[in-house]
């Protein structure tokens, strides 16, 4: 086993920082930035992924960097959990950075050199979060990550909505950061030592472990987009440039999952069952909420942002299930659930960045983000369309692609629950499984809408006829991600073998049996219980398809007549008669009406120019955030009254404060 | 995988492919009888498929390759499902490649492809059909999974052979969980196979179409494959119902093809009864408005969840 992998990871981080700084040297020299710097960043990401791959099965390595404040050096550590998320970061960033090479252009907003700096700083900060081994280094990296991503989100800072979205994002990121800081405060348990090694050794008593867990759930949940702190996600993702949305959704949300796993399973001991129930309930509520909102979106990036909320919900539900099993000492089952969680993290990184990048290409080709003005792009942009189809099928959870594998594993974990000793939890599980399955089925609805409205049908606007396909680096990036979706879908046993050290690290139990049994057949507990072999499934489907084509063409004929589409006897059909995104989401809006705050304007029969308008908003904004904003405003006004802005008044205040202090101190 | 295993696997697939249109013919015939109409021939679906194969395919000018690929993929997925569903024997080699969850996934794959292809041409009917199909699917699919989960809680497995083995070896009695699951399954099957009260397979009336609206642009060999695939789907669902709720007579031990031929009459007898029941349901009920469909399917979903809860409470 290699011992010198941690320095390589640090080297990658330094390389990213150097690349970013080079971008600052010539901020407006686009060819240098897009042909040299971004491809170099992509190469570094690939190297990092390879290093992380080796580090997965290596023993933990630690290091102390003489950086930071005096007496507070950075402690760094690379274990399998960090390595797994570094692998995810590297693999996704390879493609996203390559895509960025062709994406960022000079124009409005931040100059490309500065974007390059912020972008690579963001990558470096995320990598740093994953290897930090004390609270100080972690928080420094965490905050740098938040800041870098804030600047990237507001790249087009001249648009007021984007500034607003960035502000909201920064605000919630900081509320989360405070909770994480408090969580570390609880975890150090009075020892005053903020290294993770010391936290690991602390045994907290009483309610403290629970407090730490819920602070972590809140803090990391704010970053991940858990209910009710999801509010920034659908604002920030559409505002950011597409590669940045991809990076945030695919990787940054996962750093929050990393943090949650690190705190829950590594730094805390003796997980309690009701933490699991809480995480499960919160995760499922988030998943359902996310997917229902995704179904009614009309902006393609907003739709994907809500879909990210759904996927994070599924991941957190899986973490809840893992905690539940761990609390009852069913470590083997906990390993199945944790495997599902990690697998889904990896899957989501691939298919979500694929789809975000595809929307980036569409955005570049058409300058249009609204689904209502797209359509028929499969003819103009075949590369993007067919590769996005892979991502669409994967995210809809269809066999034999990767999204299905993690959902399958998670459902298997659910079905094992009857062995738990507590009957209340046992009753809860069917309901939870039902919610999960409902969310997964709705995801298919959402993705058919997403893909069908953008790429299929007839173009809804005339200028779509001039859309051009993605360039070469973009295509390579999309192919890399689509290939990832296929490979992760077809070789689940090999992927689980790769993930398994994390199970051993966090739960002390491994999936060795699953891996040893048969590389072709995924069977988590034993083959009698359940088995799934995507490769055989795919081969059979492909064989049947080819055979059918052969037979049909040989024994009958392959004649085709091309004709205009059938107009049902109404010749004046236009592209506007297709379903819009709104129309496609309308049934969902109707069924789940109570979930939305709907503003609707229906035309009356006598309107000269009839117009229809419907807007589905988030209740949380009005129930939770608007009151907070109002009270903050109110407080601000009250405080404003004593702030007169005249120096004599302030001197009077000082005088009275002094008097009161003297009275107290005396 | 042994040669005999492969042979019995192919035998089951061949029987499914051959019998599927017959089942559709039988249902149509029963329905005609029940509605006092003169019945079409039992073999009419075969003739329709053959006639469609012989015609020239008409493809819309703005169709993408996805449109022409879809019938093959859907047909492939349904054949795959027919190989997995234990209709004649349980111990088939391919059955281990996909369990109950993967089977539902296969159905979903077919559904998504049909819906995407329906949106491809960009006619208002196509997109409307796609929307409605996904709308019905998003409730029907979880309900179907819940039915399977009830059975897997009883048998402790999601693998279809094990489920059917366990259910076939239980004492003959009415189990409350299975009764609830059975009702839910019936409702789901009606919706998934585009039957009354959710959809009407015999109409092209715009207000009621779901499945037919999606395949409106298809003709000739493409349509033939789609028709055959939907017949296979009905056959698959019927076989799932038979395997879960009346599994008696299925070959459990080994996959001897002689034993499988022996099991065929039992299966056919059960399908004859099932087909008649389907025709009866279709005759007795009226088509619902599309917005009543969620209520209908929501009921199915809740019944299936209830079945799972009952299983947890009473242990099956």
Question: What does this molecule look like?
Answer:
The complex is a heterodimer of chains A (666) and B (316). With 666 residues, chain A is mainly alpha-helical. Chain A has helices at residues 5-25, 30-55, 80-103, 112-131, 135-153, 160-187, 196-201, 208-224, 233-239, 242-267, 273-295, 300-327, 331-366, 377-380, 382-395, 402-415, 423-455, 472-490, 492-507, 512-517, 534-555, 581-591, 619-642, 647-665; strands at residues 61-69, 72-78, 560-563, 596-601, 613-618. Chain A has a two-stranded antiparallel sheet. Chain A has a two-stranded antiparallel sheet with strand order 4-5. In chain A, 56% of the residues are buried. With 316 residues, chain B is mainly alpha-helical. Chain B has helices at residues 3-34, 44-54, 65-84, 100-120, 124-155, 160-168, 176-192, 211-214, 220-245, 257-284, 293-314; one strand spanning 57-60. The model of chain B has no long low-confidence stretch (mean pLDDT 85). In chain B, α7 runs antiparallel to α11. Helices cover 70% and strands 1% of the residues of chain B. The chains are: A mainly alpha (666), B mainly alpha (316). At the A-B interface, α15, α16, α17, α21 and β3 of A face β1, α3, α4, α5 and α11 of B.
What does this entry show, briefly?
Chain A is built from 24 helices and five strands. Chain A is mainly α and 666 residues long. The mean pLDDT of chain A is 87.
* Share of residues in strands of chain B: under 5%
Alpha-carbon Rg of chain A, integer: 26 Å
Provide the succession of SSEs of chain A: HHEEHHHHHHHHHHHHHHHHHHHEHEEHH
Query: What quaternary form is this?
Result: heterodimer
- Which residue ranges of chain B are poorly predicted, with pLDDT under 50 across at least 5 consecutive positions? none
